[in-house]
């Protein structure tokens, strides 16, 4: 995910790596230090890993798992059916990592907040997978969206561009200008645009099924 992903996927990979590292450090090193501190005088009787709940479970050693299997079957089937129904109704909203998209670099004279701009553009892009991040400096953002990615026509290109311009103008109140040399206060322009391919390979995506 960290190597091939971008945006939220790469962020998830970073958080996951940090979580694994800190969990391992806490479980191995901190726990050992804590136990050694408790037993520093050689008295191991003070150590107890039992809680009130685990004590109740220990006292009741028998549980009829086989007898409760029908309840587990019903619960599992209910969750599977519910998930299938939700997928059938809403479908899977694949982001740009899986579908690719159109990418735009939008330049301003003033600084802009990428997170707020992403929220503002969501409606115009019909909640399609969209990434917005600062590009080079705080007065430029890179917008990548999967909106109308399956349509390669020029009309689709213009529609996506118009949605971008409209969303930025509505959020900031700025005016769009065609040329970068005309950018002044309260204006913005699209410096470059391109189509990007999916960064998650088709074989990886298909293997999930």
Query: What gross morphology would you assign?
Result: elongated
| Helix amount | 40-55%
Show unreliable segments. none
Q: How many H/I helical runs?
A: 7
The tally of domains stands at 2
Q: How does this structure look, described?
A:
The protein has 209 residues and is α+β, with helices and mostly antiparallel strands. It has 2 domains: 1-47; 96-202, 2-Layer Sandwich (Alpha-Beta Plaits). Helix content is 47%, strand content 17%. It is built from 7 helices and 5 strands. The chain has helices spanning 8-38, 52-59, 69-90, 96-99, 114-122, 154-172, 202-207; strands spanning 101-108, 130-135, 137-145, 175-176, 187-196. Helix 5 (114-122) packs across helix 6 (154-172). The two termini are 18 Å apart.
Short description:
The protein is of the alpha+beta class and 209 residues long.
Defining traits:
single chain, 209 residues, alpha+beta, Alpha-Beta Plaits, 5-stranded mixed beta sheet
Topology:
Blueprint: H1 8-38, H2 52-59, H3 69-90, H4 96-99, E1 101-108, H5 114-122, E2 130-135, E3 137-145, H6 154-172, E4 175-176, E5 187-196, H7 202-207
